[in-house]
Amino acid sequence: MNYILNSNTSIIWKSEYNINNLKIDREHQHLFAIAREALNISKFKKNNEQIDKLKKIITKLFDYVGTHFSNEQKYMEKIKYPDLEKHKLLHKNMLNMLTKLVSELNNMEIEEIQKSLYDFIEEYFIRHIILEDKKIQLWNTNLEDLKKNFGWKEIYSVNNTKIDAEHKRLFDIAQEAFIEVDEELKASKIKTILTKLYDYMKTHFKHEEHYMQEINYPYIKEHKKLHAEIILTINNFVKKLPDLNDTLFEKELAKIIDIALVHHIIQEDRKIINWARNN
Fold first, then answer.
1. For site-directed labelling of 27, which of 136, 154, 165, 176 has its Cα 20 to 30 A away?
2. Domain Hemerythrin-like, which positions (predicted)?
3. Residue 256 in contact with residue 237, Cβ under 8 Å?
4. Using an 8 Å Cβ cutoff, are 79 and 140 in contact?
């Protein structure tokens, strides 16, 4: 896990974490508020009083996480979400992580507590919301609405002109998939767009990796691994093409871009820029 925590670090809800379900988004925001409270307490000198406070806040977090997961699972059942059981398992693992953290608090140094809390919030809360909870809403969104809302948004900016321009280009290429063409041209269009997306993604990742080397980014190895995973996702998608109808192809492509790429931009690429600014 990438641990980049300094005195200016805070767990802040961002608009790009919204999955466009009002009830779930509000519950996510409340989870962030409780987590931020816990992180703030963990910054004070370790003593019995602080540990007791921290246990109470993390227990409060645990209770609310359980309530939220129950509500989210009822929603998935209601919309007949196909990956419900897999999602339930992710929820169970997160609750187990919190239970373990509470049980180990007395034996941890204050820096360890801070790191564990921050890692949990970043790796599980944020990652879970962007990667997993967004899948629920994408699955429950019709294709027309997906097309309408798809594309580059300024909230995706990492405030680096070159990287932002290349990210925007990736969205522009993917957006070409939603342009209507005659039936006999569809197969050719899909092949062209995927080839263009795949090639440009590799080019962009190469530029980004060169930039990380230039600034001596300490987590370059982990970041390159994430690049490889995204390329693999595209490869696997290409293999599924013969079994996808037009609607499924467009929804799957939107899901890959909106989840894999957007998550990568707003979580991982921002870490590079923030690290460069602070160092």
1. 154
2. 24-136, 162-275
3. yes
4. yes
For the stretch 34-88, pLDDT in tens is 888 887 876 766 677 777 787 788 888 888 888 999 999 999 999 999 889 999 9
Q: What does the angle CA 165 – CA 190 – CA 20 come to, to the nearest 5 degrees?
A: 60
Asked if residues 95 and 66 have their Cβ atoms less than 8 Å apart, the reply is yes
- The alpha-carbon radius of gyration of the chain (Å, integer) is 20
Residues 249 and 238: their CA atoms lie apart, in Å, by: 10
- Residue in 45, 35, 41 with CA at minimum distance from that of residue 12: 35
Residue type, 86: K
Q: Angle between the 22-41 and 110-119 helix axes, to the nearest 10 degrees?
A: 170
Distance between CA atoms of 35 and 94, rounded to whole angstroms?
14
User: Residue 107 and residue 113: Cα distance in Å, rounded?
Assistant: 10
Distance from C-alpha of 135 to C-alpha of 19, rounded to nearest angstrom: 9
Question: Which residue type sits at 232?
Answer: L
Return the closest-CA partner of residue 41 out of 56, 26, 23.
56
Quick: pLDDT tens for 174-201: 888 777 778 777 778 878 888 898 899 9
Distance, CA of 146 to CA of 52 (rounded, Å):
47
Global confidence as pTM: 0.70
Structural domains present in the chain? 15-139 (1.20.120.50), 151-278 (1.20.120.50)
Q: How far apart are CA 237 and CA 17, in angstroms?
A: 25
Q: How far, in Å, CA of 19 to CA of 143, rounded?
A: 16
Residue 5 φ/ψ region, left for φ over 0, alpha for ψ in the -120 to 50 degree band, beta for the rest: beta
Please count the other Cβ atoms lying within 10 Å of the Cβ belonging to residue 41. Answer: 18
Give the chain's count of helices (H) and strands (E): 13, 0
| Residue where the block lists tokens 């779930």 | 24
